[in-house]
Each structure stands twice: as C-alpha cells, then as structure tokens.
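A brief tutorial aside. Many learners find it easier to grasp structure tokens once they have seen a single protein encoded end to end. The record that follows does exactly this for phenylalanine--tRNA ligase. Read the sequence first, then the structure, and try to relate runs of similar tokens to stretches of the chain.
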Amino acid sequence: MTIFSVQSTIFSRASVVLLSSNGFKRFSFASSFSSSAVYSPPLPKMKKRRYPIVSAVDIGGVTISRNDLVRDDDPTNNVPDSIFSKLGMQLHRRDKHPIGILKNAIYNYFDSNYSKKFEKFDDLSPIVTTKQNFDDVLVPADHVSRSLNDTYYVDSQTVLRCHTSAHQAELLRKGHSRFLVTGDVYRRDSIDSTHYPVFHQMEGFCVFSPEDWNESGKDSTLYAAEDLKKCLEGLARHLFGSVEMRWVDTYFPFTNPSFELEIYFKEDWLEVLGCGVTEQVILKQSGLENNVAWAFGLGLERLAMVLFDIPDIRFFWTSDERFTSQFGKGELGVKFKPYSKYPPCYKDISFWISDSFTENNFCEVVRGIAGDLVEELKLIDQFTNKKGMTSHCYRIVFRSMERSLTDEEVNDLQSKVRDEVQKKLNVELR
Ligand code: DAH
C-alpha cells in the first residue's frame, strides 16, 4: 500500500518488520549539479564521468562538505555521491518549479484560511539525528524504515531525514504550535517513473488548547480529528477543484487515529496524504500534556505529477529549458507538454543472488552508473535451483528525457552495471 508520498509507505503497519540490513559497500557517482553547490574538478582516475563531482553544498547558509557525508571510514555510511549532490538543490524553494509552485499554493490555502497563523519552515537541514527521524516520533526500534536498506545513514546516529515528521518534536519543544515544514526527504528505493531516492514532503502540525474543544462539547480527539479532516478536505478542493474524496483508516506510529485521504482522479482513487491525531506521548515529551494536536504529511511530487501532468519523476530534476520554461510563478496546474519521447532501450541482466542481496542495493548500483538515464528496473524472472541457488533476472530500461541514447552508450552502461554488481553485491552473473 502506498501513501501520500510517491514512494511506498514505510510507516504502515504492514511494514513493521525489520529487513536484515546488509553491510554493502558504497560506490561513487557524479550527478547533476546544484545551483548552490561548490564544485571540484572531476577526479583524474575517473575519466568517463559526465559531470563534475560536487565537493560541498550549501544548506540554509551552512556549507556541508562531501567528506562529511560520503565517508569510507564508517561502515554505517551509505550515502553515495549521487545523493550528496542533491542536497543543496532545494527544488521546493524555487518559485517557478512545479514543486515550489505547489508549496506556495498550499501556503496560500493556509494563509487565507488561518489568517497566517501557520508558521512556515522550508530551510531546515535534511541531516538529522536518528532520534529526530525515528525516536521522537515513536518509530519502533525494529521498524523497517530504520534499516540501512531503506534509509541513508551518515553514521550510526545521523541520517538524511526520510520524512519531514523528523522536525515535529524539535519545533514543538521550541514553542511552535502551528506550522508547515517543507523539505527534501531521502529514501533508498526501487526505480520507476514515480520513485526517486530524493523527493519532497510537507508536514503540517496544529496544537489545540482545552478552550478550543471545551466549547464544542466534543472529546478532544474527536474535535482534533474533525478539524483535521475539514482542513484537509478544503486543501484538496483548493488544489484539485471539486473532487470526490474518501477517508481511509490506517496506521502511523505517530498518530492515533490515523487516516489517509484519497481523491478520485482520472478514474482512480489516489492517495494524497497521511495524517492523524498526534500520539499524546509526543506532546507530553514536549511539555504539552494538556493539549491535543493533529498532523499531516504529504508528498509534493505525487501531487505535482497529477496537477501538472508530469509523466516521470525524473523531470523534476532536469535543467532542460524545454521543461523548466513551461512553468511560471503562481501558475498551479499548467499542463506539461511533452517535448519528445525518446526511445527506450531494454537490457536484461541475470545473476545468482547471495543472502545479502537486496533490490534497493541493486537499484543504487544502477543509479550510480546510469544516473537519470535509468527509467525503470524490474524483476522479470526468478527461480531457485535444486542446489538452493536463487537466480534473478532484471530488465533495465534506459531512456533519456533529453535526447536519444546511442547503442554504444547503452552497451557501455550495461557493461559497467555487470562489472559493478559482481564487485559490490556479491552476486554471480549468469
Ligand atoms: N511521515 C509520514 C511518512 O513519511 C507521513 C505522515 C503521516 C506525516 C501522518 C504525519 C502524519 O504528520 O500525521 O510516511
């Protein structure tokens, strides 16, 4: 089941199982660059890099150097260069970018309906402690999202936030009671048109005092839940017009009750966000034992893909003017006009997996080599032989959103993938 974010849910009850984490090796990769990044020249040994390696990024005025985040000296570290280079990009702070346009449209809704009472944060560092990311929001010790397979660890105590909920507790402790937090979040994940290891979320949080619900004659939890639903139904109408909606009960560690909002869009139910009434422990830990609160988290890419008709999540990262020039400040819902669809190129790869093999690790190797030229990676066949060896066959779809790829180029990528999976994933090619 999926939620608000384009990525699959990692906080639903179904996934409360710890996958065995494996000590996979890291690899390096140079990726597209950030306007706010500082660069060093390509490393001499890596002649064929297509982009320079980013040596430092600027996050909210703080310079983070590559060596702080991409580390060979810590076995827990699993941050590759491709991820590091995304850190200063802040797509959500660009007014003419679909993600920024959507953020501003949500801001407008809150400003006009709550007379600017919601404070806005969109520049909090994505480098957070495991306490912020997990413990403070009651993510169980054995939850799958804590594994090295799912989350980018800088070291054993520090991660790239995998959700904006990581900031709830710290903001509450600092005395904020109504806020919106927007930011880039990071998850190791599969490869297809709706999954990318970096995406954007917005978190909303609203604390109530006894006088708020006392007058209503309702119990505090019911009061908060009703207020939450009213607020988010209004937001969905603000963004999508008069759509059909439904509420689905679900589970999150940080809320009870918990809900998902779905809207009926293009003949299908689409999950728009996750939300709920905040667990009392979270409020209590921040000195708010007499209060009640609601919270929500929504994935901006998922909504933007629908609102702007953007068919592939990689588009958000392109600097191709044929994409960027189509969007303007304040223009919510302009429909993206595809400029061209370049041909895909399919390559299959089969290997005997080892016990430590995970698909996320394989995806990271492929992204490390092909970057945004990989469109999809899917398991097309698997079997176990009499000796108990398991074979996986994957189809890799290579396609650029900007040009036609040459055969030579794709063959070169594929041959590098073959080399690297053997070296890094301990698999045996077939
Ligand atoms: N943090 C959740 C996720 O990324 C989303 C979420 C769900 C945030 C419910 C909330 C909430 O604040 O109440 O999976």
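Self-check: Confidence is low (pLDDT under 50) at residues 1-6, 13-51. If you spotted this yourself, you are ready for the next section.
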